[in-house]
Every structure is written in structure tokens, then in C-alpha cells.
Write a sequence for this structure.
């Protein structure tokens, strides 16, 4: 590579055939004379100080960025651009201490994840997977035993009414669902145009027919959905998690599903990923699962790539990237006078 602004792209963005999950259109953003880019030579669980010394920016999927990553004396890394909105794989405090910016790509996931939540609502309500199996097993005469749940007048509760949560509620209005939200950082005034009633978590759990987890993973939300919370839900209700696996306690969810404390669940995320093939959740017929990829569509991947690549190119050209998570890092002396309009 040249002495241009160096951008490294995590290896897990490549497909088995040598292509990328983002498509050619997103990579056009990197056709900028100020930058040179390459894929990291291999996928690693954690980025090393050598990575931080080689690249000015790293566009990151799943590898961890730790304090050790940023510990080298010859560190060049100034930006970690995450594909997506979750950043639990990045040590934010270490980035702040070292003046490393962290950006996310909310535009890329807002509609795709929200659409995925509604996909799960519809699939659960209509018992789609079970009915699919009836046909495949030649059990047509049993179809009367698997009535679905109509949506009109039912209640959808969204826990985490941020970028994605608001979009879920916006899409849900088309189905004449009653809408509840819970988020300590969102007021009733913030959702006044969505027809949503903000409430406490316990009320949402007791009242909702579908509970959708759309919160970030942090110290407050880790293990948020446990035995107590599932016990509060209706026995006819469904739990949906497209956020992060650790916001739910898998053992508690398993018990709730086995004991019919709740009717079923649809989960795209697990406490440990990849989840083992012998995970007992996978043996239940009232669970729909996906490999942390239910929202992965061409539009989602393209927008994730565009958002992360644009952040890196902006920085290379002296422009402040959008959607900086750790704005405190900008107070470090290294950023004084760096940006122009």
C-alpha cells in the first residue's frame, strides 16, 4: 500500500467466492485519491496492535477492539467504523482514552431490522414454520390444530425505542396493532407521532402479545429478559430478539418455552455465537431461529458498507464523520483543528 490514508476492511466481509457482502456499489465510495484500502489478510477474534499500526481506519464487522489493540507505541489507527449499530465488541472507553473515533451505520439497519421484526411477528402469529412442516410431513388433516393469531387489536411491545425500535413501531401501525414502548431514554413526547404509549417494562410485558427486544447491549440491558420477565408475559405471547443475545438469559427462555410460560419465540441472536448445534432451543417447535442474519439483504449490506466506508473517506479528507458514538474522543489534542467544513 502507499502512504495514503490506509483503510483496512475486516476479512469476514468477504464471501466464499472472493466477493463481498456489500456489493460493488458500496465500494465506489473508496475510489478516492486520498485513500488506499485492502481486506485484512485473515479474520481474527481480536485486532492486534499490529493492525492498529498498519491502518488509519478499520471498517469492522465482528472482531474485537480492545485496550490491547490500541496499546502499541506506533499506533496509526484513528477510526473504527462499525458495520451496524451494535458496538459491544469495541472497548469504547479505550477508544476515548486513545482518541480513536468509533462510528456506526444506523441508516443501514433501520428498515431491514425493523422489517425483520415484523417478519417474525407475522411468522409467529400465523405459525408459519409449523404449517410448513405439516405440508412436508403430509399431515394436511392436522391443519385445524394450528390456528394462528390475528393481529388486529393485539399489542406489540417494543423494548428499546431508538433508531430501529421507532421504525418497528412505524411499520407495525399498518397492521392495526396497539403499540407500547419502553425506553428510559425516550419520552412520550418523543414518539407523539407514532401512536405509541410509553410505559414501564412490567406493564409492557404483562400487556403485550408480542415483545420485541430492540435495545443496545450494555450493563443495564445485559440479562434484561430472565425468568421473572418471561413469567410476567401472557402464556399466549411471543418473544422476539433481534438485538443482542445477552440481553436475554437463554436458560430462562428455554424454561419459559418448554413450560409453555410463553407461546413461542423468534431469535436472531444468541448468548454465544455461533450457537452450538446441540443448543436445546433448536429442538423446540415453538422457536424460529436465524444466524444473526435475519436482516441481511442486499439493501442492508450495501448501506452498511456505504456508511462505514464514507466515515473513513470523510476522515481521510479532513471531514468529521457522521454518527460518531464516542464524541468524547474529539476532546483529545490530536483532533484539535483537524476538521474543515
Amino acid at each position: 500500500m502507499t502512504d495514503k490514508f490506509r483503510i483496512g476492511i475486516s476479512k469476514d466481509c468477504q464471501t466464499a467466492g472472493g466477493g463481498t457482502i456489500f456489493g460493488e456499489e458500496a465500494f465506489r465510495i473508496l475510489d478516492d485519491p486520498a485513500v488506499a484500502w485492502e481486506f485484512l489478510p485473515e479474520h481474527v477474534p481480536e485486532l492486534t496492535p499490529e493492525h492498529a499500526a498498519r491502518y488509519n481506519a478499520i471498517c469492522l464487522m465482528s472482531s474485537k477492539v480492545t485496550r490491547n489493540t490500541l496499546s502499541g507505541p506506533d499506533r496509526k489507527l484513528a477510526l473504527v467504523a462499525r458495520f451496524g449499530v451494535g458496538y459491544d465488541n469495541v472497548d469504547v472507553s479505550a477508544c476515548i482514552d486513545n482518541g480513536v473515533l468509533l462510528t456506526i451505520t444506523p441508516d443501514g439497519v433501520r428498515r431491514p431490522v425493523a422489517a425483520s421484526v415484523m417478519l417474525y411477528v407475522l411468522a409467529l402469529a400465523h405459525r408459519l414454520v409449523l404449517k410448513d412442516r405439516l405440508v412436508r410431513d403430509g399431515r394436511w388433516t392436522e391443519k385445524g390444530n394450528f390456528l394462528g393469531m390475528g393481529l388486529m387489536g393485539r399489542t406489540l411491545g417494543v423494548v428499546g425505542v431508538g433508531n430501529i425500535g421507532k421504525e418497528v413501531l412505524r411499520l407495525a401501525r399498518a397492521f392495526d396493532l396497539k403499540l407500547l414502548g419502553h425506553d428510559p431514554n425516550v419520552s412520550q413526547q418523543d414518539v407523539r407521532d407514532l401512536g405509541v404509549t410509553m410505559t414501564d417494562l412490567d406493564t409492557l410485558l404483562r400487556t403485550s402479545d408480542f415483545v420485541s427486544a430492540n435495545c443496545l447491549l450494555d450493563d443495564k440491558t445485559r440479562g434484561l429478559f430472565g425468568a421473572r420477565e418471561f413469567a410476567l408475559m401472557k402464556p399466549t405471547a411471543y418473544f422476539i430478539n433481534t438485538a443482542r443475545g445477552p440481553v436475554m438469559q437463554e436458560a430462562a427462555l428455554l424454561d419459559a418455552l418448554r413450560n409453555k410460560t410463553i407461546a413461542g419465540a423468534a431469535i436472531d441472536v444468541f448468548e454465544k455465537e455461533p450457537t452450538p448445534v446441540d443448543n436445546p432451543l433448536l429442538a423446540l417447535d415453538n422457536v424460529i431461529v436465524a444466524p444473526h442474519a435475519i436482516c441481511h439483504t442486499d439493501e442492508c449490506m450495501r448501506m452498511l458498507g456505504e456508511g462505514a466506508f464514507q466515515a473513513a473517506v470523510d476522515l481521510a479528507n479532513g471531514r468529521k464523520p457522521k454518527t460518531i458514538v464516542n464524541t468524547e474522543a474529539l476532546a483529545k489534542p490530536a483532533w484539535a483543528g483537524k476538521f474543515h467544513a
User: Anything to note?
Assistant: The two ends are 29 Å apart (CA to CA). The domain at 109-289 is CATH 3.40.50.720 (Rossmann fold). The CA atoms of residues 82 and 104 lie 5 Å apart. The chain has ten helices and twelve strands.
